[in-house]
Specification:
single chain, 421 residues, Immunoglobulin-like, alpha+beta
């Protein structure tokens, strides 16, 4: 109820009191005029909502953070009575309010316009219902009528481009300046060397043998035959900050960006995380698989009850020596590092992306985790609040010893190849 309506009701109450308390003709006329005014206003607002036909057309059932929810609304006046003072707005639980539009109609008139809502947060929301608000000329009544049924709309996390992604995160040694030799024959040749007793004749590189006048054999690497796994730590209590700028949203954005980049490279990629449910998706490289992973990332919440080390141990049966695994976590504990070393002994290539909780207002830091990872020779990347993701995942962190003011040494972490400061 607006202030004008409240004021008119108070005035009506006062006039009613004086009308029946004094019996003066003036108050009776004033009382009837107010009743007539209220009756006309209420009827006007009510009849404005009759005979309307509303449609909402969309071309997609999901969007992405940073994009727009687009649609076309059409309202048709099917009655003979003209309509005025109407406001049309889409009803949605998106964190950004939808803008309304004021319209007026004559008989059988139709109006169509485009609506756009900026998508600021991932999740599953309800959209598609249209609310029409009618108001009388005196501004006393605001009646609402809803059209259409609400439908689910998925907002997937933003996927930042990673053109300079470190090949170690993708298990692409043949596509980088370093290669890793592989005992089995694959489609990727790493180098050519002289024949040694025991080498299979299937490895002989005949054109190069003829050129060198000596038996030369091919050495292979994993190349694109490896399957990549992305593991997201969604344990309750390890994330910090308020959405949308917190470690949880940053971790999901990193996972979405990494998964998208791996699929672009035609690599089979799997996703595992412990959130409101245990999610384990076997590696695949199809666009449909990418869509499923993005939809799951849109819904997952950091409410997991299983520790990340327990989750990694449970994931071991799904992994083999042909796999690469990238763990994304803001945890400053070191309990999960032995689980990664156990997987590496199994032959899995391990990488860790650490999110710095201090940059998001958290009290803990990742120094202990960094030291434990470096001691176990695990490739580690660090991401802070507001940092460019492509730059952060370009090269892993390196460690160097610096001299303290009293002669004692302390560790300093910097990216490999960065100039010493």
């Amino acid at each position: 109820m607006n202030r004008r309506t409240l004021g008119m009701l108070i005035l009506l109450a006062v006039v009613t009191f004086y009308t029946f308390g004094t019996g003066f003709t003036f108050f009776f006329k004033f009382f009837y005029a107010l009743l007539l005014l209220f009756g006309i206003g209420l009827f006007w607002a009510w009849v404005n909502l009759r005979g309307l036909e509303v449609t909402l057309r969309r071309t997609a059932t999901r969007g992405q953070v940073g994009g727009y929810l687009e649609g076309w609304v059409q309202v048709v006046n099917r009655s003979r009575i003209p309509k005025s003072w109407l406001e049309v707005v889409e009803v949605t639980d998106l964190p950004v309010e939808s803008a309304g539009r004021g319209v007026a109609f004559i008989r059988d008139q139709s109006r169509t316009w485009k609506i756009e809502t900026y998508l600021t947060r991932r999740g599953v929301f309800h959209t598609g219902q249209v609310e029409v608000v009618s108001q009388d000329p005196f501004g006393l009544f605001r009646l609402k009528r809803h059209f259409l049924q609400s439908q689910g709309y998925i907002v997937v996390p933003a996927a930042h481009p990673l053109p300079d992604l470190d090949p170690r995160l993708a298990g692409l040694p043949s596509d980088s300046r370093t290669t890793r030799h592989w005992d089995n024959i694959t489609t990727d040749v790493a180098s050519v060397r002289e024949y040694a007793p025991g080498d299979s004749f299937r490895r002989i590189h005949w054109p190069y043998t003829a050129r060198m006048n000596a038996l030369m054999v091919k050495e292979f690497d994993m190349g694109k035959s490896a399957e990549a796994w992305v593991v997201l730590d969604m344990q309750q209590g390890v994330h910090f900050g308020e959405p949308p700028d917190n470690t949880e949203e940053t971790a999901v954005t990193i996972a979405a960006s990494l998964v998208t980049r791996l699929v672009e490279l035609s690599l089979p990629v799997g996703l595992a995380m412990d959130g409101d449910n245990d999610y384990v998706f076997r590696p695949d490289s199809s666009p449909e698989h990418l869509g499923r992973l993005m939809e799951v990332l849109a819904e997952v919440k950091a409410v997991g009850t299983i520790s990340i080390e327990r989750f990694l141990y449970d994931l071991r049966p799904n992994l083999s020596r042909f796999n690469t695994l990238t763990l994304i976590t803001p945890s400053g504990r070191t309990d999960w590092v032995p689980a990664l070393t156990a997987l590496r002994r199994q032959g899995v290539t391990i990488s860790v992306i650490l999110i710095d909780p201090k940059s998001f207002g958290g009290a803990s830091d990742i120094e202990d985790s960094l030291e434990a990872l470096f001691q176990n020779d695990i490739a580690t990347y660090s991401v802070s609040s507001g940092q460019d993701l492509n730059q952060a995942l370009h090269v892993p962190l390196g460690i160097e010893m610096r001299q303290g003011p009293l002669g004692g040494g302390f560790h300093s972490y910097s990216r490999v190849g960065d100039a010493a400061s």
